[in-house]
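Reposting from the mailing list since nobody answered there.

I have sequence plus structure tokens for a pair of proteins and want to know whether others read the tokens the same way I do. The first protein:
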Amino acid sequence: MAENNLEKHVSRRGLLQMMGGGAGIALFGAGAASLLSGCAAPNGGGSGGSGGQIAIGLFAEPDSLDPAAMHLLPSYQVTSSIYDQLLWKIAGQPSDRYLPGLATSYSVSPDGKTYTFKLRKGVMFHDGTPFNASAVKATFDRIVAPATKSVSAKSVLGPYRSSTVVDDYTVQVNFSAANGGFLNNVTSPLLAIVSPTAAGKQGSLFGRHPVGTGPFKFSSWITGESIQLVRNEEYAWGPDTAGLKGPAKLSQVTFRIVTTSPSQANALQSGALQVAQGMDISDVVRLTKAGFRQKVVGASGVPFGFVLNVQKAPTNDLRVRQAIQYATDAQAINSTVFSDVYESANTVLTSGMFGHSKTVSYSYQPDRAASLLDQAGWTMGSDGVRRKGGESLQLSWLIESGGFGFQDAAELMSAQLQKAGIASQITQAATPQYVAGIEAGSMNVSGLYDYAADPYVLNTLFSCAEVGDGPNDAHFCSPQIDAQIAAANATIDASARAAAYEAIEDELMQQAMFVPVYSLAAVYVTATSVSGIAYTPLTVPLLTGATA
């Protein structure tokens, strides 16, 4: 096995090229005159320079700060400052470029079943215990342990068999089948390395008392209000790019839970936040015109779109699902709701994801939608709603509250479907009720986007094993597609692996259970005093080099 020495592989020239690529693009120029009355100056309220503090808005409460147990993006955004991964990726870098994290080099066996990592020496967890090969083994063993009840991390880890401690700073990670996506997935926050001592001591409470090796230590979590982190003074092992070499410049990071777009905008204007995100596009435009900085960070993962439940009538009929696809004008949604900020999506993976299929399975064709509904036995009524057997053709929608644009997009899409004779009932719910409703399958339509490092995310979102209490919102189960996903993940050759995933995407789109709207991206708006934030391909901010 050839060893990839990461510290030597990443040259200064390579770093400059990556940094020049940028983590995102400025979409709107800052206006000279403020359109917002009674607001703080765009330089925000942080105390700049070394030792400063920053407040970042979270659009939802994290579900956990335990990588093995978490599901939600806000959790990723907090934990990426608490933990480190074995390898890192920075947005804008080449897709095959891995930066050293807790591992300094790696090698892969010819059969793709064994990954060997040489580990960094001199690293300590926040609780004072040493990082070593046993900690890596304990982290991965814990993910697959039944008592952990891991869902997302376990799925991302793949066909894990065991880890072998070769010596204190060499670990072999073994799989029961070739795991072609592991290097991508090991850069995910879901596979961050945790303190075995703290995890064992805290048990099920570890998600509220996290301990890692990252640039910031956990300080407090006030439910519904904030999570506070303080600088890890000993940190010196971050990836040496984009200003990430530790220790951090900031002395404190506060993640404030601000769940609505107007509230985040107001907090940014008043100086209570220096970084806002997840806001409605209209608020983003107003703030950037007022002089705040705005950055769009393209993401790898699953596009913003709507999932159709294949087990609940009437979307249990493929013809109805196909009709919904043809009756939806996604480009109009993109233009009207999102001001054409984002790139339109065509399938279940974002355009920047490895293995993305360019096949366009559906387009806006209302006549074809009408024909499919006629074939399915739904007859147009005098009130503009189709009926069959005395029942109206109506969809129940469940939309998570807190912004994201799902409500506005759902209202416009439902108006488009109404023209085809499909009625809608849209319900908004807070995150806990939303998740419970999705798992119970109580809706026909729900919103979806997902950030992922590798196309193996399709296993998480569409496999039979994830129906019910897992994240398979479509409640779709096909043993044949499960087998195809497993085979794709077992493929080591890059071109063959990409082709396999493209074929899987096309088959999933033929099942018409996902209506893609736009290719996923994150929009951050910051005070002008904020600088030095880098981002991962999952659009997670990395704060070691940040100042406010």
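The second protein, same order (residues first, tokens after):
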Amino acid sequence: MNSPFREEQLSDHSKYIPKNHREQNHPKTGGRQPYPSSAPTAPTSRNISQGNRPQYQEQQSEEYLQWAEPAPPPLPLGDGSISLVGRIATVIGIAGIIALLIIFAKPLSQTVRAFLNDDAQTSEAPARREAMLSTAAAPRGHDREQQAPRSVTTSLPSRSATSGAVVAAATETVPLAPQPQATVAPPPPRAAETAALPGAQPELKAMPVRGVTDAEIRFGIAAPFSGPAKELGQNMKLGIETAFRAANAAGGVAGRQLKLLVADDGYDPTRTPAAMKDLYDKDQVFGLVGNVGTPTAVVSLPFALDRKMLFFGAFTGAGLLRSDPPDRYVFNYRASYAEETEAIVHYLVRVRHIKPTQIAIFAQSDAYGDAGVAGVMKAMRQLSADNAKVLRLGYERNTVAVEDAVSQLQKSRIPIKAVIMVPTYRAAARFIEKTRDLYPDMIYTSVSFVGSTALANELMLLGKRYASGVIVTQVVPVVDGHSTLVLNYKSALAKYFPGETPDYVSLEGYVTANVLIAGLQRTGRQLDTEKLVDTFENLRNLDIGLGTPVSYGRSEHQAVHKVWGSQLDENGHYQPIDLQ
């Protein structure tokens, strides 16, 4: 409301109005606005008399100073543009955050859902397994859906006849052509479900191992079970089976029974490939144990090495099974022929005081005989003897044709006082028979491969004088002894093979098999050739009652180096002798 006083006093109060407001045009004051629109209304003349005008002016001036504070000036145009850009940037940033949330919301929710589902499946696995087993024989839902006619439900918009607007949605079933049926195997239970089953064990997906099943471990032996050397194969087999049966009666090895399969090579190298092939392809054996013979080993050893088969405890002391460094898959129990012949040469020279030139060699004409001769020559060189002067006599394998050997012995210019034999038992018995009367004081010695018991039996058939005094080096203790090992062997032999006579060859088979069993037991249930080889290469100081420890290593694949001495008495029994 306008008043004369306000117009009259305008010039007096204008000094309290902010400058920027005073300079703005005002329609009623000639282009001047007396005060900001937000300021309080000035008092009118009705409230002010002439008498109190000066007092009021002073009071008004004080009050105006309080409420007439200048308002902040408006921002320039440039600052407003910057503010607008900032607001736009803020909006864009918020929109970007929302977009990221939309993009990653689904993966995050799926991850959380999967985590929750895994926890739920762990607790629900037993019930789910029962449901799977109960529905295994029934058609799966997926198959039933494929067998039934398929249909698709679609929403078809309809428009009003008058306005054309969409007013309803109609559903329509469209039949589809039948699809070819497919047989879908039910998926296997997941690892989490299997692990959650009561009593379930972690599944070990191990590759099948030749000759090893959940119930048994199959080993093979290629040896003579016919022909002149058949007793060697039969007795070696007897000793191994005795140890196997004792182990099987005690629960086997890691729950598996031990089984021995045989192949007859007749001690004939030409028959050995077929015997090995039968064991490998037909019988599917895990490894070989107790193969008999050196000439047959010349064939069987490469066969086994090419196939990385275990070649354990062969009944031979030949050097071809004792490479330096040793072949990985070949393990020997017994002392070598070189060690046996060295022991007997030293005995004859140092104990019996026979000159090296007075010692002859009667050996089989093959790899077996050659290995024995090499051992004798090595021992002779250690004694500084002239090997050229050592008489070598021979015969053909699988024969007893010793007549040429006897003739050469008779023609020797140097009197022979001792013969080191590297034969089989029948050839040895025939040679002794033909020479005993010619050389009554002759000392006959033989390596262990001869077959000690068979030799004693053959000689006793000829007469006591043929048997008495014959020396045989052994790779096992004396059978007539009373050590724990020998007593256990005799007890097991009588239990599982009643009526069989204890024998050095079968005792060696028994000892060899027990060393093998010790390695199998240390390897455990998860058996394969490589693990068993590693076990043997770390086997140290095994005590099985031999009187000497059994040890292997990476550079040592022969368990024992000890040689025992034995001598036949007039009753055909072997008595221990000291070879030192």
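Reply #1 (J.P.):
I read it the same way you do. Residues 316 and 464 are 29 Å apart (CA to CA).
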